[in-house]
Amino acid sequence: MKIKITIVFLFLFSILNAQNTRLSELLSTPYIGKIVGAAASDRIAFTVNDKGHRNIYMAEGPAYTIRKLTKFDSDDGQEITSLSMTSDGKWIVFARGGDHGANSAPVATNSASFVESTKIEIFTLSVDDQKLHKIGLGDFPIIHPDGTAVTYLRSGQVWTASLNGENAAKQLFSMKGAAGNIQWSPDGTKLAFMSRRGDYSFIGIYSKSSSRIQWIGPSFHSDSSPQWSPDGQRIAFIRRDASGGPLDSLTSFNYQGWSIMIASIADGIAHEIYHAPVKKQATFPRIGGQANLKWKDSRYMTFMSYESGWPHIYRLDVSTKDVQQLTKGNFTVDHLSYSADGKDILFAANTGRDQFDFERSHIGRVDVASGRFEMLTEGNEIETAPFYFDRGKSIGFSSSSFNRAVNPKVYHMKDKKSILLATELFGTEASGFVKPEQVFITAADGVRFSAQYYKPKQIKNNLPALVYIHGGPRRQMYLGWHHIDYYFYDYIVNQYLAEQGYAVLSVNYRMGTGYGFDFQHPNSAGNLGASEYADILAAGQWLQQQSDVDQTKVGVFGGSYGGYLTAMALAKNSDVFKAGVDIHGVHNRERKQNPSQYAPDFELATQLNWESSPSKWVDSWRSPVLIIHGDDDQNVAFSQSIDLYNRLQKKDVDMEVLVIPDDNHHWQLFENLVKVKEATVDFFNRKLK
Fold first, then answer.
1. What phi and psi values does residue 459 have, to the nearest 5 degrees?
2. In CATH, what is the architecture of 175-325?
3. d(CA 285, CA 314)
4. Residue 47 pLDDT greater than 50, yes or no
5. Mean pLDDT score of the chain, rounded to an integer?
């Protein structure tokens, strides 16, 4: 009997080990992140995360054979950000270290628990001889217009150094507050910047020929995003109200007015050239890059707004103040990039000829003067983050599909042909991936939303099923591999679960981007009623209604905001969701209420915050849960999981925990990423199979 038990145990162990090996192999798929190009050269550079080894690669036309430039060959949890390239493609600049996806200002992180402290540092790299120069402590570097120096931020001050390291780093000037949004004038003689000073901020100009800072239109406001005119004689910036004053309401929509200001450098007097309409859709945009103010063409400025109900590009005539909407339609525009002369704007948008392109992304272009726009790419791929390079002769961008990870892609403007790069980095691990099916579901309150359904290739009855909930919540999941690293790896897990016989439903719930202003800003959502949870419940019930799904084996999982909604699902509907994995979610929203913000409806807001908290509903929590959290989380406080853990303990809920010391919200140590994903799969295998 003992021999038989041992044989069975070893057999089961070998199966489990093989499954974990397969998942680890899939998670080892290289992630290509930021891609940049040289404005005047046929060269591109990009970052690669290969099992935690984060390095920079480059490729040069016409062959575009890739070449590894750096040798950061250990899983040390140090990310590479602010990648940029000189116009001739001979130098690369970047920052290394920190967590730049945090909700607060980036600080050094030590996910690997090194005995020595880590740093955020600036590096320059000579491409031709691959010589790496460590400039020193700093972040957010930009290249000087003459291509010989790097300017960056260090402890809130502006510093500079030569690219080749010959001139030591030095502080450029001293000022009160913390600098940000640094931008050199076209001739490289003046630097515009934002000076953050607590509740307000100013726009300042440093000049090499002056011993004093010039302040542009200082006022009782929060000024940001300075933009030089092409001739360097004027400057534009965004103005918003500074914090302070009475609060009208904490439970109604908070319209945030904003305007575009313009000033002559000669006198520094600022004048309003545009004021956003006073309506909900025209509030200061909550999208990547926010207003995305640019002044690349002498006649026009451009910016982004939700004014039409969708995030689109607008043109502002500097002389007449006339405003024209350039891109139009029921789709989202993002990832803007400009031609050298400012005449054209590249963008990514979830639109195209196919009926399901709203769940993809393609590359488009708009002519600023005429307003004529066209989509340059089409098909079943997900294409984002375009940019011009090689004197505008080519476009680079990231490209993926349902069974191909993110690659750099080059599109030649002359012959309109595309070349896929860096394919040699990838194996055939994803060849067995299923093609997600687009589905539509309507919640109990009538809100219709979309989701992607991953069905096992070998269809059988009584499938266990899972609802996957993305974070954000300002995100959109696609019909393929995501370009954001967090969701790049979650996509792998969803596909792996489908391989293991799970039906997986990835939900694009209300509050997400990609579906217009009203969908992103629904009533009674978030901490004011969590109406978005109705979509999660509807998704679970939809799975229960599928003929090949075992309705008693539906689970739920997600991270960040997805962790929050996972906890809501388990707390409020253990009758539907029989197990869940809650990864660094918010659980007690009442604790996030600020007593100093005492508006007339403060008590109502506090009540709604508590009603919107999973911690409030633990009395009805019956299903088993795995709670995962890293204790250096800069997005969701570790105490949020402690709060839930203590409450569930008293209710004797079947609960498991995985605590990751020193790692943050984005699992920057690859070893920890694998540990989290394997623990998630293992938990569902034990609870739902």
1. -65, 130
2. 6 Propeller (2.120)
3. 13
4. yes
5. 94
